[in-house]
Amino acid sequence: MSTIIDTFIAPPCSDEIEILYQDEHLVLINKPAGLLSLSGKNPQNIDSVHHRLVKIFHGCTLVHRLDFGTSGLMVVARNKATNAVLCQQFSQRSVTKVYSALLCGHLNSDQGVIDAAIAKDPALFPLMSICTVSGKPARSRYQVVERFSRQLEEGRTLSLTRVQLMPETGRTHQLRIHCQQLGYPILGCDLYGGLQQPGTEKTPRLMLHASELHFEHPVSGEKIAAHNASPF
């Protein structure tokens, strides 16, 4: 059995967490790119969404996470009862998540589904892999918003597609590896091919943003439809 050794040290994140909504039960935030959701084991990785918020909302806990490089909407529970109800909604897949992303290249189809099981492999850490044998089922839908090109130096152009991504499951790195599997990696993705195409190597961040979150308020039962526009 392979031992996982995590050598990643997160660079300092000066961007603030934007609090979009709060009540006595939950907090809705806009997470900046380049901030861990949860503090790592390494003391140099102490800064995180949870580390910052627990100082303001004592006893708060994370219901779900966003990757270090991903920005956007997160819902945070302010007590154990709220956490339990929200976690149940996520596990039952009654929460709808929509992400905005820029993909390398021009997709041929306007919409589609990526159905590819994802597995952990300690030997490849931190990468995940597509594996039909040991992988857990993973399914994502995509919808093209626009196709465009960016002018680069020396007359070169970079073809990009803006998409909405709707994960139906919640596997680690799901959208990133599914887009790579599709053949159009997310721009700026260091793990799954988003910095390999000429003109992509100086991309400042992972171009993936959690733009919509739909769920039921754990106490009132009100349907919450949170929207946060993509910064790119």
TrEMBL record:
Cited InterPro entries: PsdUridine_synth_cat_dom_sf (IPR020103), PsdUridine_synth_RluA-like_CS (IPR006224), PsdUridine_synth_RsuA/RluA (IPR006145), RluA_PseudoU_synthase (IPR050188)
CDD domains documented for this protein: PseudoU_synth_RluA_like (cd02869)
PROSITE patterns in the record: PSI_RLU (PS01129)
BP GO terms, sorted: enzyme-directed rRNA pseudouridine synthesis
An example Gene Ontology molecular-function term: pseudouridine synthase activity
Residue ranges constituting the Pseudouridine synthase RsuA/RluA-like domain according to the UniProt record: 25-181
Gene3D superfamilies per record: Pseudouridine synthase (3.30.2350.10)
Superkingdom, natural source: Bacteria
SUPFAM superfamilies recorded: Pseudouridine synthase (SSF55120)
Pfam family, one: PseudoU_synth_2
Family: Belongs to the pseudouridine synthase RluA family.
Protein name, per record: RNA pseudouridine synthase
Organism: Pantoea rodasii
